[in-house]
Amino acid sequence: MVLRKILHLDLDAFFCSVEELQNPSLRGRPFAVGGQPEERGVVAACSYAARRYGVRSAMPMGRALKLCPHLSVLSPRIGLYIEYSRQVMAQLCKVTPFVEQISIDEAFLDVTALPEVGENIARRLQATIRQTLDLPCSIGVATNKLVAKVATDVGKSRAVGVGPPNAILVVPPGQEAAFLAALPVQALWGVGPKTAANLAAIGIVTVGDLAARSEVELARRFGKLGYALWHWSRGIDDRSVVTSHRPKSVSKETTFPRDVVDEITLRSILHQLAAAVGRRLRRKQARGYTVTVKIRWPNFRTMTRQRTLRESTDEDEVIFQVAWSLFRENWSPGQPLRLIGVGVHRLEQVPRQLTLWDVAADVEKEEQLRRTMNDLRQRFGVDAVRFGSSLTKTGREVSEDNQEESGSVN
Amino acid sequence: MHVVCLQENLAKGLSLVGRVVSSRTTLPVLSNIMVKAEEPAQIRLSATNLDITVSCWLAAKVDEEGATTVPARLFSEFINTLPAEQVSMSLSVRTEQLHVSCDRADANFKVIDASEFPIIPEAGETTLQLAPPVLRQMISQVVFASSTDESRPNLTGVLLNAHGDTLKMVATDGYRLSLRSTTLPVAVAEPTNVLIPARSLAEVGRGAADADDERMAMISVTPNRSQAIFQLNGKEADGKGKGSFHRLAVVSQLIEANFPKYEAIIPKSHTVRIQVSTAEFLQAARRAYLFVRDSNNIVKLSITPGDPGRLHFFASSQELGDHESELDVVGEGEAMEIAFNVRFLIDVLSVIDTPEVALELTTSNRPGVIKPVGSGAEGFLHVIMPMNLNR
Considering the domain A249-389, what is its CATH architecture? Predict the structure, then answer.
């Protein structure tokens, strides 16, 4: 197999860098972007000056202000960040079509096909983004996604000085395991605090500790994750750079303003939800094998039931019929309900022949916006951004918990 | 009517006109072929489905003028079974039957009177002339790209545009577009822009295969601009028993709809260009097709530019298995992956006769362009929209 050249790019303190561009007087000052402390907001991003006081992202804003009392708190301007992010991604796409945007400020690039060494590509890319957009970024270069991402993080942490790190760290082919060995296991992408604690319990603290264990042992203790951990610890990761994510499920649910008991009303709502799910599937060119219904009683007891079909579907009527029969099996007339939902899971993509009249660029833009919105929702909560048209009269949105794009291991 | 002709000529003529006869028609005479003996020495065979009328003139010894219509299928199949001898046909007005005899076989066909057969428009003023081999190639290079979806009538036609000494034919089904242009031997007096049903052009193309390449094909539009007429001259009889004809005319209704503004669809630039052997590309596409013809027709192409660069094919089917292959190419630009309906690739590669072909791409969801390369690559361009894999 050909040795790949993967770049991981992370914009340094992205939101803050954008704010500094808008208001240069912020440069060098401790400030944070995020929710106001009185609203129990959290730090979405903080300047490098703020970091010296111990302020970190995801920290409650109240705590950040205790650490750094003269911290300026700015409300996030999401539209602005999206626009800058789009421009950065456009720059990346000039380098290679194989760009996988993983969040508003991070992306992988597969530059295997380019003749230059990865480091030169990284340097040029960093310079281009600085010159054209005046934004700092750090880049990790390695033979796979895992090591490239860790390289970025390590590069950033090694940076000295007060400004943005502007780091570039290259892990040469063959050096992956050695590079990772001394790092704590949390450095591995996909190892959260819970897994780290479980590993620590059996004496595994560093990636090197992990690599020293046998594949069989790890697999026995951690199942599928164990296999992945063992490979990761050796710097092995053959996940490819994918240009966008597939949704794994599509679902739609509604919380009633007042509990509903009437069967005809429930049936009609379920019908609408099924139609909405069907529409969304068709728009995504996807079909699914499993239909689920979600039911919540006034006491918050919640139940999800599913049925798997022999053939995948994207048809409203099929989804509704299955959902309705599942619903009827689990609900007795007279029971008031607080919420019902319909979902379709185990999706497969239906490839679509594009037409000459497809304005391909628009499709791409829409997809990018959607991804960014999801990203922001994950960071700020579902209420952070919504499309203007999705607000109902009461200001309540029919919640959508689709696209469970969990970082599952292939 | 009494007329004598050679079996092979009659069979040839029937095969050229018979294809337009519809088996399901509410008007019985449309299931028939008109046979008309014309002074001094020819038979005219005509068949129509009202949209297309094909007429063919053959050499014959005419003893008595006259015309009638005979059931197309029975008559053609009967003539095909006869030996290569003289066929004699005579109409009995009294019994309303056409008597046919050849060698020791005789038959009587029930006829419908020729007066019931639709009137066939005569050729108007010749608008343009073209060498049959060029006409043939132009038709073959565009006609397949038209749509068969009758709900979009403007896409079921081929745009024929003549301006000065340039003739263009364009067809698109919304997923791909073929454009072929050529220089006319004689410039047209007035610009012509008509939409001809692809089906009619296919008939013309078929006729052009048997035409005399030395004599110009004539294309004209009736004065009321509702029909186009294509006329071709047949080859001289070669004496080898292969049928020949004097003249073939295809009269086609024109489609009254606007052809899409196709110029905007044709990409003006590209970021990747590869040049590859046409035969190898076609072979690889056909191989990939085996695996996907029953499912989604998708072939994924990975392009690694360079000299030599690589063109990698991947086709897979859940039921059948998968297939990969690779070709050497000469390419410049960026590496990319793109998916196409492999049928579309086969269609276009089958009508390119230069040894090398170029594929130009921009991104994986933008149209690709296929062009012949080198001498003989005159004015042909094909645009294909990729498949969106929605990864």
Answer: 2-Layer Sandwich (3.30)
Q: What H or E segment, with its residue span, contains residue B203?
A: helix B198-209
Backbone angles phi, psi at A264, to 5 degrees: -65, -40
Q: How far apart are alpha carbons A397 and A388 in whole angstroms?
A: 10
Instruction: Report the distance separating Cα A242 and Cα A26, nearest Å.
Output: 37
Contacts of B305 in chain A (CB under 8 A): 113
Q: What is the ipTM of this complex?
A: 0.75
A349 interfaces chain B, CB cutoff of 8 Å: yes
Are B226 and B278 part of one and the same domain?
A: no
Assigned CATH topology for domain A1-173:
Alpha-Beta Plaits (3.30.70)
Check whether residue B137 and residue B256 sit in a common domain.
Answer: yes
Count CB neighbours of B76 within 10 A. Answer: 21
Where among B239, B262, B285 does a domain terminate? B262
Return the CATH class of domain A180-233: mainly alpha
| Residue B152 CB contacts under 8 Å (≥ 6 apart), including other chains | B174
Q: What is the pLDDT of residues B39-68, one digit of tens each?
A: 889 999 999 988 899 999 999 999 999 999
CB atoms within 10 A of CB B206: 17
Look at chain B and count its residues: 391
Q: Is A116 a catalytic residue?
A: no
By residue range, what is the domain housing residue B311? Answer: 266-384
Residue-wise pLDDT for A139-162, tens only, equals 999 999 999 999 999 999 888 877
Residues on chain A touching B366 (C-beta within 8 angstroms): 360
Strand order in the sheet with A72-74: A43-46, A31-34, A72-74
